[in-house]
Description:
By secondary structure, chain A is an alpha/beta fold. Chain A contains five helices and eleven strands; from the N terminus they run H-E-E-E-H-E-H-E-E-E-E-H-E-H-E-E. In chain A, helix 2 crosses helix 3.
Amino acid sequence: MKLLEERILRDGECRPGDVLKVDSFLNHQIDVNLLCEIGREFERLFHEAGVTKILTVEASGIGVACITAQFFGVPVVFAKKSKTSNIANDVYSAKVDSYTHGVTNTVVVSKQYLHPEDRVLIVDDFLAKGQALLGLSEIVRQAGAQIVGAGIVIEKAYQGGGDLLREQGVRVESLARIASLDPEKGITFM
Amino acid sequence: MKLLEERILRDGECRPGDVLKVDSFLNHQIDVNLLCEIGREFERLFHEAGVTKILTVEASGIGVACITAQFFGVPVVFAKKSKTSNIANDVYSAKVDSYTHGVTNTVVVSKQYLHPEDRVLIVDDFLAKGQALLGLSEIVRQAGAQIVGAGIVIEKAYQGGGDLLREQGVRVESLARIASLDPEKGITFM
Lengths: 190, 190
């Protein structure tokens, strides 16, 4: 998506430690007009998929999921990060290693909000090693629901998470796919 | 807001310990159509306020903030919960006691995203004792910006947080104001 790539080049910052900082428009300050264009594009890509629910994980996925859900006319469900390892039996749960924060979270979704007849589009702001996406996929599988695909704003393609998911048969659509990230040389796209 | 009150009566659950559970439409599963009506109402209420930014706090405030921001045509900034007590000098920060979780969080906003010329509408899903709102107000004050008001989806009016803020001169507009909450007798509105 050209508009998004241009925005990343203009306002994204490469930081040491393989960090792409897009705080100014995606995950601290949020440019809602840009999210609208992103949501519209996800709807175009998954128009025929019969989506019944958008699934994301707190916190920074929630904005893009809500704006996207407007174009599909379906509810959002966001997985919650659980601080306890005691998981209640009324939730689906999965473990997620956070690449950015170096911790493992358990994410949970109440069994009330995902059902076997659901056709789920997973939406998230970032895809790197794919841990969040794998966790969300696991939750959808526990519910016996169908994953119709994943709509990702920015994929760090060189980290392999997207391809891991694609090899598992998940349709992953990323609106910007980063080929390399270097504080000196800048950002290149696939 | 009649639509919201009806929804709370239909789908809200009173739980022991003074908990109003609105997980099915507001803060786990999200009814985006309802959020649209909420956002439209906030825009009607604060139409003349010259809002330049919507400020909320992660996680469950982000959805309502993003949908609301569409009606104002302004960016969202969400305060992040910081796990460390070492606060960097490039952020504004405030301490927030969480009524629900019994912990104190520090919430931070990068200095890049709030400026003295900003006219800030604070948006959140819940207002009880007012701790989150006080923390966000403190951050706006640190930035030297103007708080034009707070748009709240559900205020537990009997817990006093709303009135505390109103006494400080903040215009607080809550779309549903709960007068009492009782697992036996149900929910009553102001």
